[in-house]
UniProtKB/TrEMBL annotation:
Belongs to the peptidase S33 family. The keyword Cell division does not apply. This is Alpha/beta-hydrolase. Keywords: Hydrolase. It comes from the Eukaryota. GO terms for molecular function: peptidase activity. InterPro entries: AB_hydrolase_1 (IPR000073), AB_hydrolase_fold (IPR029058), Peptidase_S33 (IPR002410), Serine_prot/Carboxylest_S33 (IPR051601). One of its GO terms (biological process) is proteolysis. Residues 67-230 form the AB hydrolase-1 domain. Pfam families: Abhydrolase_1.
Length: 463
């Protein structure tokens, strides 16, 4: 089924780029197309070149019909940056493609999920049923519907498109290769080889190990923060939490989720800067100032991206419930014993650093941030749901004919390297660029380096 194009408006942006803003209508549930629709948003982008001579309509059409290169953002629950601000745009356009940045359903301008928009669905069970339609299986069906619409008048050789997935976007690619390989010419992924066939608990047991390593790296780089973090935890507990500008409360456990930054380039420094600001505020004023609290809230809260928090564990589920797997696994590890209660005072445990958690989502997050608090009941329903359909077809992946070029990071804190290698063995025609010199966000932080390697995998032959 093709998507219905509702609106298309084009304009020029600096850098000789032409951006078209596209709104589509697709079924809310592709398996039940009569059950209502949702709206999706995407931006297409091409080079704007003023022709020397006036072209006929047919000639103009031919110049516009370049192969499509579609970008899927990481997440789940995050939208795409404007194309002129995205580091991939010029690199991909220089390769002769036209690009499509799609806000996946529930994000950006694509039927965004908030507590208010979700409440329109009805009670908590209706909300949960609605959110079940926002995983990778629905996202790739959206993509296929849009592909059919955009390439309707294209020649046969241009009807397939290329796909690029960062992180969760790469997970979506593996679902696409499982379900609709006929729609793809080639696929690229960075930090996106999903842990196929692994339970949520297996995933978190692996990723916690890397989080421990990154904590050790943090305290080795900033040894003064061992005492500083303990002191801040003691202060926060003594105040029974710090009120945040939006109305949330910074608890000790909330503070210790700052480690989700550790897996990014410069992530250790981001956390240190926040710790330093808090420590400096307390030394000067005996309280944490509003600018610092705002910075903390920006680094910690998912109130503007609730889909990430609500569906994060569900992206690993096939015919099983997650049952708050990250919390369950974390509580079994001595480094994260604070998940079972507040840390002791700084003096009592000064010899042992307090370890920060990674990207894990915990039930207590739905108690300390205002928007998430409204979604606590539906999040719990989804955590207990065991009817999640399969996302991957291992039989199909073993016979895959679509080239997949993957950048895989040895020190990836979010997508475990060992599990990624297990997945790579399952997918025929998967070539990897493997490095211990980049982190998960290399597509943003080291764009030229990682894209050079990915296109080398595509263009170079080792035989």
């Amino acid at each position: 089924m093709a998507a219905r194009l509702l609106e298309s408006k084009s304009h020029l942006v600096p850098g000789k780029l032409k951006v078209s803003e596209l709104f589509f209508e697709v079924p809310k549930d592709h398996l039940k197309p009569a059950g209502g629709t949702i709206q999706l948003f995407a931006r297409s982008i091409t080079r704007h070149e003023k022709p020397v001579t006036v072209l006929s309509e047919e000639e103009q059409l031919k110049t516009q019909q370049k192969p499509w290169f579609v970008y899927l953002q990481g997440g789940p629950g995050f939208s795409c940056a404007p194309p002129q601000n995205h580091p991939l745009t010029n690199t991909v356009l220089d390769k002769g493609y036209q690009m499509l940045y799609l806000d996946q359903r529930g994000t950006g301008l694509s039927n965004p999920i908030t507590s208010a928009t979700l409440a329109e669905q009805g009670d908590v069970h209706r909300q949960a049923d609605y959110l079940k339609l926002f995983r990778a299986d629905s996202i790739v069906k959206d993509c296929e519907a849009i592909r059919k619409t955009l390439t309707k008048d294209y020649p046969a050789e241009l009807k397939k498109w290329s796909l690029f997935g960062q992180s969760f976007g790469g997970f979506c690619i593996l679902t696409y290769l499982s379900k609709y390989p006929h729609g793809l010419r080639e696929a690229f992924a960075t930090g996106g080889l999903a842990p196929i066939g692994k339970s949520p608990e297996e995933v978190y047991k692996a990723t916690y190990r890397k989080v421990v390593e990154r904590n050790k790296a943090y305290y080795q780089k900033y040894p003064e923060d061992v005492d500083a973090v303990h002191g801040l935890a003691y202060h926060i507990r003594g105040k029974a939490g710090l009120p945040l500008p939006s109305g949330g409360v910074l608890t000790v456990r909330g503070f210790l989720t700052l480690g989700r930054n550790f897996g990014m380039h410069g992530g250790l420094d981001i956390v240190h800067n926040l710790v330093l600001r808090m420590k400096s505020d307390l030394a000067q004023f005996k309280f944490v100032t509003r600018p610092t609290l705002s910075a903390l809230e920006s680094a910690l809260s998912f109130d503007d991206n609730v889909l990430y928090a609500v569906l994060h564990e569900a992206i690993y589920c096939e015919n099983e419930a997650s049952n708050w797997a990250a919390e369950h696994v974390g509580k079994s590890l001595k480094e994260f014993s604070w998940l079972a209660g507040s840390p002791q005072s700084a003096l009592a445990v000064r010899e042992a650093p307090l370890f920060f958690s990674g990207e894990m989502i915990y039930p207590f997050m739905f108690d300390i941030f205002p928007e998430l608090e409204k979604l606590a009941p539906v999040a719990d329903v989804l955590a207990k749901y065991n009817g999640w359909p399969e996302l991957y077809d291992q039989w199909q992946l073993a016979r895959n004919e679509v080239p997949l070029y993957a950048a895989t990071f040895v020190d990836d804190m979010y997508v475990d390297f060992g599990l990624a290698q297990d997945t790579a063995k399952l997918v025929k025609n998967c070539k990897q660029f493997i490095t211990n010199g980049m982190y998960h966000d290399a597509v943003k932080s080291k764009t030229d380096d990682v894209m050079k390697q990915l296109f080398a995998l595509r263009d170079d032959s080792i035989d």
